[in-house]
Amino acid sequence: MIGMTRANAVNAFGNLRFHWPEYLMEAGELGLYMFSTCAIATLLQHPASPVRHVIANSFFRRAVMGLGMGATVVAIVTSPWGKQSGAHFNPGVTLTFYRLGKMDFSDAVFYVAAQLIGGISGVVIATYLLLGAPGDPAVRYAVTIPGRYGNAAAFVAEMTISFILMITVLFVSNRKDVARYTPYFAGALIAIYWTFEWPLSGMSTNRTRFGSILPRPR
Predict the structure, then answer these.
(1) What sign for the dihedral angle of Cα 128, 194, 154, 108?
(2) Does residue 177 lie within any of the structural domains?
């Protein structure tokens, strides 16, 4: 048992030594994702934003939010950082790849830790640069909370959209003829989720979005 523990520690140290750039990239990607989430939500929902008054209908605002977040996902995944790290920026994706034997346990741990740190940092930076505007009650840091149908509906909705997203990524990325379109499939699903699913659960699909609950408006 001690030998296995030492071997695991050596393996973890080796992964940290050689893969730390990828871990930092994952943190940066999550930071950008959460910054974009807060920034776009503020632009569309804050009472002082002229965009909110121009787009008065909440459905159309969600559609614009979806387009913005879908484009953000595509941009991150296709960026040099995204290509090098694999652009998981979601613990669910990382743990799925670990379960499928596509990455070591220590790599998965470091990826998830980086994602959590990046997600929190993105919200904090957005709050600072936008002078606290994401904390307005109308925006609430784009927090993920159960919608009008309660906790049970939110749970089922989150489970469903996460399953569809993950199964789509796995299916498309493993087919040579369409693998290069994987980022666009993922981005399209994110856009659809923001538009139609958001009223049920706040559209998370990503556990790192818990960073939205940490800052609090004064």
Answers:
(1) negative
(2) yes
User: Would 218 be classed as within a structural domain?
Assistant: no
CB burial string 47-78: b at 16+ within 10 A, e below: eebeebeebeeeeebbbbbbbbbbebbbebbe
Residue 10 has pLDDT above 50, yes or no: no
Give the CATH number, domain containing residue 169.
1.20.1080.10
Tokens found for residue 181: 């379109």
Contact 38, 46 (CB under 8 A): no
Q: Of 201, 216, 50, 204, which is closest to residue 132 (Cα–Cα)?
A: 216
- The answer to the question of residue 9 being in a domain is no
Distance of alpha carbon 208 from alpha carbon 204, whole angstroms: 9
Token pair in block for residue 85: 């790290």
The letter for the amino acid at 52 is R
Per residue in 150-166, pLDDT tens?
Answer: 889 888 988 899 899 99
Average pLDDT over residues 172-183: 91
What is the number of domains present in the chain? Answer: 1
Chain-centroid distance of CA 34 in Å reads: 7
CA–CA dist 167, 189 (Å, integer): 12
Do the domain assignments include residue 188?
A: yes
Integer Cα distance of 35 and 123 in angstroms: 6
Q: pLDDT by residue (tens digit) across 120-155? A: 899 999 999 999 999 898 888 888 778 888 889 888
Structural domain for 160, as ranges: 20-207
How far is 86 from 96, CA to CA, in rounded Å? 13
